[in-house]
Inverse folding.
């Protein structure tokens, strides 16, 4: 949506292509205007504004928005030439239709072809023994995420709705954009003049495959993809990509579904990460910033988290942080909670302070954020009792993050307990309960793993006691644990 | 054609008045002469300014004997100052006309940057005398302010977030809240700092006398950029440079440097070191500089609470109503041993505390409130019954206290803050364990008997029991 605000491309794009002066984007020429519209589109525009087609109750402003969003969506999804403009309902008809069917949700038709993965039997997923939810369980359980029953391939119409919603959120931008479509004859003339001047910007399907050379693609604004490949590996670009190498949003939606299914099917992270990166790249080169973009980054962040790929997770978090400021939807509070938990892990006090400064009172009431803040507070006061209670109540994918620091806190708690219950032998059962272990065995194993096996005393009934003389061992282990904090790609 | 400013320059140069000279090269007209900048700028034009300055400074030197090289250097500085003033006046004019959007602060910044680097270059070559170093102070001071203006303006134009434009961008969002010019200013000032630090001239004539002021300017920028690493390396550079003792520098340099060093130690959680720096800064701070005193106290008070468990008095805070309104309720809560009061006071001050980066430190003072509460339980518990043959003098306080008594106390003290959520016994036991771990309470917990056995000697170190 903000493509109308930011110039479509920065002056420095391809060092070896000098742009002719006339093509240099200026603020007075919104980038979209340079698009060559095929004759049927122009005819469609003419018909929309023709007086005989006017529908009372729909003013020209509304018409403008609708028209604009339809065409933009078509252009961005590469369907400009595929749509039968002659039979497409006029914008005023579409508006009317929508008003009539407002109660009925739009139903989408699915294209079953790409669902080879998603029907894999649920038994192929390992049942998760602990509290942790895997990414896909989470995605389904989370009411904010539409289950991936939602199919892609809807073409221009869904996009149009999407654009429409966005247009509503920003009146000014909308008006700026619709200016381009003013139906005056002067406009038509200008348009045609521009078309002549900017002939090299053509993106017609027929030309894209043959005539495309580096020079003329480099001088275009956002690429409008035409590729229909669902599986596409990631390559770092060294030149402006050709439209036939880039996938439009509907294809990307299919690709995302495919990636999720694949992850669910065999958790092949290398493949999934590579695919997601290429989806992100396609979004970037087409400058698509909408709810779907958010979804892609959220998906990648969660999968990376599950896999423990903190570098990639952080990259996505950084992107999401900025995307959320655009209010494109998604799950900002859930991800804010992740950020808090990550900050606890990285023990970076000044970042934590910055983050606290960012939170609004309303944020603090959101359950996930509230939980994360309680975790923070419990750790500040070494309140291990509360911490492990919170550990078991952690919402969403939070446990994956909490696991990164929970053992560190266990060591600190053990050191504390050993000092406070000085010269007593404590039942391991007590330790296990206080420190949130799933079983007594796990607790005993934890003590052993940290080199304090000599301080475990076996009882006749096969239970264990922990000698509090182990204090120094835990103190030492705790210090070591705090030292090795991974900070790659930190946000 | 005459340049009044150049005449002033010649006079002040003759007096070797560094601060006077610095007051010439400022982008803000002095209150006494509000038209100075406009007059100076209008007295020439881009084509002739260099020649005219040359004529005024060299051919009509007015008895001032500068080396040819130094004179041309000053001409260059004057000329670049002239064009910088032009850019700045243009911006102000745009704002005056209600067209702030067209004010090109980037250009103003760049031109002022030119003045700064030019000054630095000639100081580096030791063409300019050491006593003129205040010119660099002024240049640096306004470099930062102009950078902020430029960044604000570009943020207003394009929003907080920059999006990717090129095909080689990996992701859709390029950067968030970038402060491009301020980052640039940081580099410039860092290099100016370096040229002060590395001056090999004998100390009487060294630019090293400017090092602390330069460091302070750098601190200001780095803090704004939120780049604590740069601050750390700055402190390191100062500490490895051979310098006269800090107390031989002007007081203003000392106070600011101590303040920033103190804040850095504070952020690194070295509270006793921070307290040292901040105390020094507070004591030497100009008595009328209440704003600065307030800033120093903002960090000094939390340090002092944590290191010595002493609370600020109303008398200390009387001149600082804002600090009083934030810190006194906290202090009262600690004194009353009321956890609920403490939580409320901390929450009330949270926006300010977070902004000043002291929230995470202050919240730790809750432990002191808790310690006071536990001690109250101990004191209220009374004395062990006297054994046969013992007199009043042998009376001992009861040191074996059932955990349930502490549980009741903690529940009472924090009930208002935890609406509906009761604190269970195990949690209190955990809190007790922590008090012992942190040596705020001496003794141990006897798990099986459910009692706390307090040390007979000073069970609450540092308090009068």
């Amino acid at each position: 949506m903000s493509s109308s605000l930011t110039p479509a491309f920065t002056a420095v794009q391809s060092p070896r292509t000098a742009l002719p002066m006339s093509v240099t984007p200026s603020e007075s020429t919104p980038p979209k205007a340079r698009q060559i519209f095929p004759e049927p589109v122009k005819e469609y525009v003419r018909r929309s504004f023709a007086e005989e087609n006017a529908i009372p109750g729909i003013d020209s402003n509304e018409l403008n928005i609708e028209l604009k969003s339809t065409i933009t969506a078509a252009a961005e999804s590469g369907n400009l030439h595929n749509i039968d403009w002659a039979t497409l309902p006029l914008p005023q008809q579409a508006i009317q239709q929508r008003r009539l069917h407002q109660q009925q949700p739009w139903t989408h038709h699915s294209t079953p072809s790409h669902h080879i993965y998603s029907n894999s039997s649920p038994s192929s997923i390992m049942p998760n023994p602990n509290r942790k939810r895997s990414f896909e369980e989470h995605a389904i359980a989370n009411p904010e995420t539409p289950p991936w029953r939602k199919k892609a391939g809807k073409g221009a119409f869904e996009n149009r709705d999407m654009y429409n919603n966005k247009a509503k959120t920003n009146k000014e931008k909308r008006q700026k954009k619709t200016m381009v479509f003013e139906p005056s004859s002067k406009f038509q003339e200008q348009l045609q003049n521009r078309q002549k001047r900017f002939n090299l910007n053509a993106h017609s399907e027929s030309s894209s495959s043959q005539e495309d050379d580096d020079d003329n693609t480099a001088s275009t604004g956002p690429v409008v993809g035409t590729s229909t490949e669902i599986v596409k590996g990631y390559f770092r670009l060294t030149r402006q990509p050709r439209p036939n190498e880039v996938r439009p949003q509907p294809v990307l939606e299919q690709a995302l579904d495919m990636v999720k299914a694949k992850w669910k099917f065999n958790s092949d992270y290398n493949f999934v990460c590579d695919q997601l990166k290429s989806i992100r790249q396609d979004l970037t080169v087409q400058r698509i910033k909408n709810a779907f973009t958010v979804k892609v980054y959220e998906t990648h962040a969660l999968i990376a988290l599950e896999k423990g790929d903190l570098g990639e997770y952080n990259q996505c978090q950084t992107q999401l942080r900025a995307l959320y400021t655009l209010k494109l939807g998604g799950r900002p509070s859930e991800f804010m909670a992740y950020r808090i938990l990550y900050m606890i892990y990285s023990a970076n006090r000044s970042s934590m302070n910055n983050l606290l400064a960012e939170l609004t009172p309303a944020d603090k009431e959101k359950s996930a954020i509230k939980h994360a803040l309680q975790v923070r507070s419990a750790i500040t006061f070494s309140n291990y009792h509360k911490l492990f209670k919170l550990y078991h109540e952690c919402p969403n994918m939070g446990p994956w993050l909490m696991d990164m620091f929970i053992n560190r806190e266990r060591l600190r708690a053990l050191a504390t307990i050993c000092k406070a219950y000085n010269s007593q032998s404590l039942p391991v059962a007590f330790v296990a309960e206080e420190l949130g272990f799933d079983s007594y065995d796990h607790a005993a194993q934890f003590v052993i793993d940290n080199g304090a096996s000599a301080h475990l005393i076996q009882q006749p009934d096969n239970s264990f006691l922990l000698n509090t003389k182990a204090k120094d061992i835990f103190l030492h282990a705790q210090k070591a644990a705090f030292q090795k904090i991974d900070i790659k790609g930190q946000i | 054609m005459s340049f009044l400013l150049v005449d002033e320059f010649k006079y002040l140069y003759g007096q070797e008045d560094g601060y006077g000279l610095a007051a010439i090269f400022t982008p803000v007209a002095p209150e006494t002469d509000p038209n100075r900048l406009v007059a100076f700028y209008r007295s020439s034009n881009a084509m002739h300014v260099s020649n005219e300055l040359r004529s005024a400074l060299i051919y009509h030197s007015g008895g001032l004997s500068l080396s040819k090289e130094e004179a041309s250097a000053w001409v260059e500085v004057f000329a670049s100052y002239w064009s910088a003033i032009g850019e700045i006046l243009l911006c102000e004019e745009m704002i005056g006309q209600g067209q702030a959007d067209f004010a090109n602060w980037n250009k103003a910044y760049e031109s002022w940057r030119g003045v700064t680097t030019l000054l630095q270059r000639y100081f580096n070559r030791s063409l300019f005398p050491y006593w003129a170093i205040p010119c660099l102070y002024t240049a640096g001071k306004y470099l930062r302010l102009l950078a902020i203006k430029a960044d604000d303006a570009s943020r207003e134009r394009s929003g907080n977030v920059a999006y990717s434009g090129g095909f080689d961008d990996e992701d859709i969002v390029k950067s968030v809240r970038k402060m491009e010019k301020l980052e640039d200013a940081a580099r410039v000032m860092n290099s100016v700092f370096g040229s002060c630090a590395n001056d090999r001239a004998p100390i009487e004539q060294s630019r090293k006398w400017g090092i602390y002021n330069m460091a302070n300017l750098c601190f200001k920028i780095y803090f704004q950029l939120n780049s604590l690493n740069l601050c750390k390396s700055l402190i390191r550079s100062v500490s490895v440079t051979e310098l006269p003792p800090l107390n031989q520098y002007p007081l203003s340099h000392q106070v600011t440097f101590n303040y920033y060093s103190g804040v850095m130690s504070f952020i690194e959680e070295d509270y006793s070191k921070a307290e040292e720096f901040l105390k020094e800064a507070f004591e030497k701070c100009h008595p009328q500089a209440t704003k600065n005193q307030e800033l120093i106290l903002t960090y000094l008070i939390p340090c002092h609470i944590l290191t010595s468990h002493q609370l600020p008095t109303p008398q200390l805070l009387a001149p600082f109503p804002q600090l009083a309104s934030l810190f006194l309720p906290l202090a009262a809560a600690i004194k009353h041993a009321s956890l609920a009061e403490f939580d409320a006071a901390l929450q009330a001050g949270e926006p300010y505390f977070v902004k000043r980066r002291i929230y995470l430190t202050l919240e730790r003072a809750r432990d002191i409130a808790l310690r006071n509460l536990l001690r109250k339980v101990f004191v209220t518990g009374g004395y062990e019954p006297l054994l046969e043959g013992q007199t009043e003098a042998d009376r001992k306080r009861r040191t074996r206290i059932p955990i349930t008594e502490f549980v009741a106390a903690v529940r009472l003290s924090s009930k208002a803050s935890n609406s509906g959520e009761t604190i269970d016994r195990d949690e209190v036991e955990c809190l007790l364990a922590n008090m012992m771990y942190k040596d705020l309470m001496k003794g141990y917990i006897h798990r099986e008997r459910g009692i706390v056995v307090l040390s007979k000697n000073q069970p609450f170190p540092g308090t009068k029991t």
Remarks:
- Chain A has three domains: 2-13+26-108+151-201, 249-396, 403-483.
